[in-house]
Amino acid sequence: MADGAGFGTIQVGTEAGAEALWSRCRILLKERVGAGSFQSWISPLRLASVEGGVATLTVPTAFLGSYVARNFQEAILAALAEAGGPASRLVFEAQGRTPMRGAVPMPAAQAAAPMAAPALAPEPAEETQRLDARLTFDRFVVAKSNELAYAAARRISEGMAVGFNPLFLHGGVGLGKTHLMQAIAHEMRARRPHTRVLYLSAEQFMIRFVTALRDRKMMDFKQVFRAVDVLMVDDIQFIAGKDSTQEEFFHTFNALVDQGKQIVLTADRSPVEIAALEERVTSRLQSGLVVQVHPADYELRLGVLQSKLAAARVADPNLRIADGVLDFLATRVTSNLRVLEGALTRLCAQASLVGREITLDLARDCLGDVLRASDRKVSIEEIQRKVAEHYHIRLADLIGPKRLRSFARPRQMAMYLAKTMTSRSLPDIGRRFGGRDHTTVMHGVRKIEELLGTDAQIADDLEILRRALEG
């Protein structure tokens, strides 16, 4: 054999010779593929022989051999040549199985030999967190605050090529992020039952990873997560600060993206706001489409209640509800959609059990604790103080008559928050903003609603202020 660059020729007809050659290759490969990929994919390999231009490598599982053949074959062949044991193709021999040939063209006689298939991923039902049958696209209420997130989720569920990967949805609690993820899974299973969809929480990802480490089954773990067509992880912020889990997620992410597989993630904040997240992970999370799901406005809250009521009437056709009750709930319960749906569920249950109509009086009596919690959460005065602090202006200028843009936009933001986070009427809000007319308040609210769809800074300011007020 010809000498490799920097190395002498090694006789690999013996086991010792193969080990010496592979030791040289490992040094070269570790530098070229990176420590993480080396540890995950190259380290488990063993060189059995190099004969007739064919290098035979033993691998723990057929899956690992198949992955290495697709992603590292050229690097291994180059390293073999440089280390003094050149070969024209690779054969991967899973322990106890028929050899698996690499992707390099083979002579016809050898190509006819059976190729060991990579181990199949478990059926999606075995690996996917149990889905809620109610969380489908048909039951998702769309409004300005979530229309982009909905459209992106729909596009992915159709199975067509999309120009973004991953899709990263972020926003507060109870805004529909999990609903959209599960809707994607439901829709994909309905359209293409054989699509391998894996949906789970970040906590479950971490538990599986730690269990695989403990039981020395990391190859099985990698096989499951790298063999899916769509990976969806909920509440990804929970891997922050957990270095080993982040490392494995990083390699899983890269492996799936390299294979053209789709990833969907959710979190309670944007990638750059997740503390203790490695910079390289943050960078990967931002490489696709990042969409904020905004807090529900009045129209969305009312739409959710109407949808919930329609479903309740299917179960109980005799359910009666007075005019104004849904409007009352949409105005008063503003914390999040889960609390809002829970309030209506409680009302429907009580009305059905005692055979009464759902009236405003019944709502006030039955939901006293929910209404009190919502009322004590925020006041117009507190909103004004927080907005003035956020925009670094005086409270007197926020409320006063000056129409400078530096005062007018924060004033409109404060009016919008007062309208959506309190039960005060428009005239009452106007009076608390220097005696302004209710039409001025309406104009301010509409202006912020328009800007939310076009101005990312306004959307970010609103999210920060909501969190400060709700906290």
Automatic annotation (TrEMBL):
Cell compartments where the protein resides: Cytoplasm
Entry superkingdom: Bacteria
Boundaries of every AAA+ ATPase domain copy: 163-291
Any GO molecular function: lipid binding
Family matches, as Pfam families: Bac_DnaA (PF00308), Bac_DnaA_C (PF08299), DnaA_N (PF11638)
SMART domains named among the record's database cross-references: AAA (SM00382), Bac_DnaA_C (SM00760)
The Chromosomal replication initiator DnaA C-terminal domain, residue ranges: 379-448
One GO cellular component term: plasma membrane
One GO-annotated biological process of the protein: regulation of DNA replication
ATP-binding as UniProt keyword: yes
Region annotation (Domain I, interacts with DnaA modulators) ranges: 1-112
Binding-site positions, ATP: G174, G176, K177, T178
Family annotation (SUPFAM superfamilies): P-loop containing nucleoside triphosphate hydrolases, TrpR-like
Keywords carried by this UniProt record: ATP-binding, Cytoplasm, DNA replication, DNA-binding, Lipid-binding, Nucleotide-binding
Free-text note regarding domains: Domain I is involved in oligomerization and binding regulators, domain II is flexibile and of varying length in different bacteria, domain III forms the AAA+ region, while domain IV binds dsDNA.
Subunit structure: Oligomerizes as a right-handed, spiral filament on DNA at oriC.
Record protein name field: Chromosomal replication initiator protein DnaA
Organism: Rubellimicrobium roseum
Gene that this polypeptide is encoded by: dnaA
